[in-house]
Structure to design on (539 residues):
């Protein structure tokens, strides 16, 4: 044996360097830690709450009502904690309802695809086309340039930015509008100094712009059915609960929603100008921002291309078709040609299909849209809407709605004119802690039952409940639009409360004024006051 072999022998350990028992213990500890995480506890929370409700809660009703309450506890626990991704949670009624005997699988699946869902899909495809061709940015710069003023007038500029956001939000989901408009707004704010060099006047104007964008997106979405999922949930539930009643059409809603949104928007603009735009702000801001900057931004986009013109044409035709499908009883609209078989979703999908047929004239054979561009479709919102409709049907069919109505039966004693503000206040409070759609989904079935007990038109309670659910103005987590603004770094929670609280009060006041006046004219909510037969609207 030579010296090298002896040296190798000395280097080779006689026993293992790592104790296998210690390794197993360490591996067991890491496994236990990976299992007992906060997220896994939240995952177990849903089934646990459901089990507790089903075993311990006794309701004065059928067994399905208790099972439905347990399913609600499961679904809302997952929604609130986000233990499971929200789109996946939104699909849970597809297996929970059949398992707990609430509905068959076919009945639940029908809630996930109807005319309202088709309306959403078509609108989202059109919104993706608008975003792809930078039409929203061109529109924003043109309107902002128009309102900039010479010399610079900050209140007018703020009006232009907020007004553009509200207009864009009318035709696409308010979250998408906020996401698209925030870079436009912050692009303008980048002209101002930041950090220690930023003056108080500039800082206040930056806050006003960011707050204006997020709140304008929410307000603009109230004016049309396509602007927010809450309005679509309202329409879907109205159609589901009262199939014999006159449906809420796109043009019907806009006659009420647009004046409502305009008044709340003016209140927002006034509050922002009062608190954040001082009289001397124009002189301080004009050194950093003028029309020349806006014109340069617009020139960078180049001339309006053929593709942009075609997308705008399709969008314009879609709006015209929505508005004229059903006009009045004397002027039925083009929908009468199809004997009521055509809905707003039919038109939305048809016009979206044209985007895959019309060439964009950029490359040979290339169309305005292709399916690769549609990969950004927000399926999470589509699934959430479907879950909302399924839950609404389950709450009604299981008998749970009749039982839950008793929890807010104090509204039955409220005076007629106090109904709208009371419902709006309840809904507006709940929505600060849960999503707008979840608030609407939970509250509307209860309000329908209360309306039946009070013998008043259901929309007298449903509309304030749905609109109030969109008044999530106080907290960043109230809605994804708020988070979009909060992440810019220009605003803090106290800024949101400072503007959001008076805005919430103003919105409630406007709704309380319009609901018994304009609402009675548009939706016929005074029917029951004139002893019109309620059976016409019942299932």
């Amino acid at each position: 044996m030579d010296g090298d072999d002896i040296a190798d022998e000395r280097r080779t350990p006689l026993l293992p360097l790592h104790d296998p028992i210690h390794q197993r213990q360490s591996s067991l500890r890491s496994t236990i830690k990976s299992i007992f995480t906060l997220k896994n506890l939240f995952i177990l929370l849903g089934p646990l709450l459901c089990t507790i409700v089903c075993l311990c809660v006794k309701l004065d009703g059928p067994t399905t009502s208790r099972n439905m309450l347990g399913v609600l506890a499961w679904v809302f626990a997952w929604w609130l904690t986000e233990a499971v991704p929200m789109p996946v949670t939104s699909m849970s009624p597809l297996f929970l309802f059949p398992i707990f005997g609430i509905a068959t699988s076919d009945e639940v699946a029908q809630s996930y695809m109807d005319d309202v869902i088709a309306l959403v899909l078509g609108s989202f495809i059109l919104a993706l086309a608008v975003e792809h061709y930078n039409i929203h940015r061109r529109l924003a710069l043109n309107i902002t340039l128009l309102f900039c003023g010479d010399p610079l007038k900050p209140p007018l500029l703020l009006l232009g930015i907020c007004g553009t956001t509200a207009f864009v939000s009318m035709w696409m989901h308010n979250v998408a509008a906020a996401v698209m408009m925030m870079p436009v707004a912050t692009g303008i704010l980048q002209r101002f100094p930041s950090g220690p060099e930023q003056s108080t006047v500039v800082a206040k104007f930056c806050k006003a712009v960011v707050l204006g964008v997020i709140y304008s997106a929410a307000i603009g979405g109230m004016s049309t059915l396509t602007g927010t999922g809450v309005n679509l949930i309202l329409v879907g539930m109205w159609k589901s609960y009262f199939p014999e009643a006159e449906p809420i059409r796109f043009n019907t809603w806009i006659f009420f929603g647009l004046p409502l949104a305009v008044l709340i928007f003016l209140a927002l603009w006034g509050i922002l100008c009062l608190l954040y735009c001082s009289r001397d702000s124009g002189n301080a801001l004009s050194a950093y921002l003028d029309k020349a900057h806006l014109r340069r931004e617009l020139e960078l986009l180049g001339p309006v291309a053929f593709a942009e013109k075609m997308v705008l044409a399709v969008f314009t035709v879609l709006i015209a078709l929505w508005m004229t499908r059903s006009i009045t009883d004397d002027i039925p609209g083009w929908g009468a040609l199809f004997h009521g078989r055509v809905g707003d979703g039919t038109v939305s999908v048809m016009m979206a299909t044209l985007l895959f047929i019309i060439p964009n004239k950029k490359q040979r054979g290339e169309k305005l849209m292709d399916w690769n561009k549609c990969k950004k479709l927000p399926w999470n919102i589509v699934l959430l809407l479907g879950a909302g409709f399924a839950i609404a049907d389950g709450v009604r069919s299981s008998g749970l709605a009749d039982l839950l109505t008793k929890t807010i039966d104090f509204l039955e004693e409220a005076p007629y004119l106090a109904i709208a503000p009371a419902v709006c206040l309840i809904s507006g409070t709940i929505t600060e802690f849960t999503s707008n759609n979840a608030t609407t989904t939970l509250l509307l079935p209860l309000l329908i039952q209360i309306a039946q007990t009070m013998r008043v038109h259901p929309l007298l309670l449903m509309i304030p409940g749905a609109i109030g659910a969109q008044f999530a103005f106080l907290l960043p987590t109230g809605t994804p639009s708020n988070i979009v603004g909060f992440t810019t770094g220009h605003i803090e929670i106290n800024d949101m409360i400072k503007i959001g609280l008076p805005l919430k009060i103003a919105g409630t006041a406007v709704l309380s004024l319009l609901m018994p006046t304009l609402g009675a004219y548009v939706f016929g909510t005074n029917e029951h006051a004139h002893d019109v037969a309620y059976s016409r609207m019942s299932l």
Summary: Residues 250-276 form the longest helix (27 residues). The chain has a mean pLDDT of 80. DSSP finds 26 helices and no strands in the chain.
